[in-house]
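Before the break, one more example. Copy the sequence into your notebook; we will annotate it together after we see the structure.
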Amino acid sequence: MSEAVYPVGIVGGGFGALLTHTALRYLGFESREIVVLGDQPDPVATYRAFAWGLGQTVLRSESESHFLPADWPTFAVMDLLARRRLSAVRRSISRTFNPAVPDILAEAHAVAELTGYAQSFARCRVGEVIRGEGRAGPHFGLYDEEGRLRARARHVLLAMGHGPLAFPGVLGTARRDPALAARIVQAYEPKRYRPGGRYVVVGSGIAGVNEWVNVLLAGAECIALRRTPEPDEQDLNVPRCLFEAYGIDAYQRLDHAQRLQILAKVLKGTTPERRGWQELIAEGYRKGTFREVIGEITEVRSGPEGLVVDIRLGAGGTTGPLHVVGVSCATGFDKASASVPILRRLIERYDPPMEGPRIALDSNCGVPPLDRPDSRLAMIGIHANIVVPNGDTIAGLKYIARRFAADVLRAEGRRRRPFLARTRMHFRCTRRAVADIRALPDTPQLS
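Here is what the structure looks like once it is written out:
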């Protein structure tokens, strides 16, 4: 193990790590000055697996949610450049354009390759982050899960992604039963629906609606179990105003408890309007292959078709025993900080302030009391949406990544990369992304 201290360490290897690495490279850091420690060298691997499991074909966000070092061109403009058509730009103007998943992955791979992400990456599952001092000055030691020191860095960004998949209520217990586990899956996991089978889909957000459609397209019957009243119709996973700088600034003026109250309200489950989906669901209503229920599963046991479930209805009473092939949980992720081992150990060691189950981050996404202007420890992603409400979207990740990179540049007393060098880097990434997108088949829009 070298005694050298990297200027920057990134824990995790997903979208947040890639966007932060890109922001750092764009501002002036070299790949050899950044260490990215993760268990997966491909920064899109986790997202790709979730998208494939969900059957997702387009991104929920709009064309600004991209990986290029600078803001322009957006995905709509890249679609115009790659496919020589104006429809994407027209859709973007009316806020109805949604980038295709293959296009997103192609752009991310292009940016990763041209910014030297692989040269910064080292395979390691970090288990603990410990504040260090000494001749090297303030820094953090990054230890693997066996307790071995793997790297030192003055500034560290925790980019571990989402927490564990959530299985609510009795479904969590049933999932741990080997006799039932295979029939209780998460929407983001690989799965196959059997034609003619009956399935319960738990959840009312975008993932839930996506699974309703997947069940119906397979020729199966879908019981859509909502645990909350009818969700708001909304394109994005938080209101659009919270994607803008003014909205984020207003959000950060609230205390942590007020922020969590807002998140509980705006993240309760929203669904965008999708013309093709609505037509398919309406047809399911007519044929009797789609039903909606508001309530909670109270019992799960084995049955002749696979499972027998009992549902307590929100309006009172129960459905009685329902024979189903399986249950798909579109219930997202466990957002509690302690559900992630590295954060649980950080909480145990340093006792940071908490707001409910979440670490109460500072307004710059720093982790108190460890974060310092000369040696930053910050978080990005879903565990930072207590500060940036859309922190688990590409747009929110980019917002946090750029602020962190700018803070590190100032702390290191470095000058920005010269304008022409930044421009060359940006346009190399753009040209490569457009060329790679051009080689892909077109993906239909859903609205």
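The chain has two domains: 6-163+335-438, 170-231+268-329. The radius of gyration is 23 Å. Try to locate both features in your own notes.
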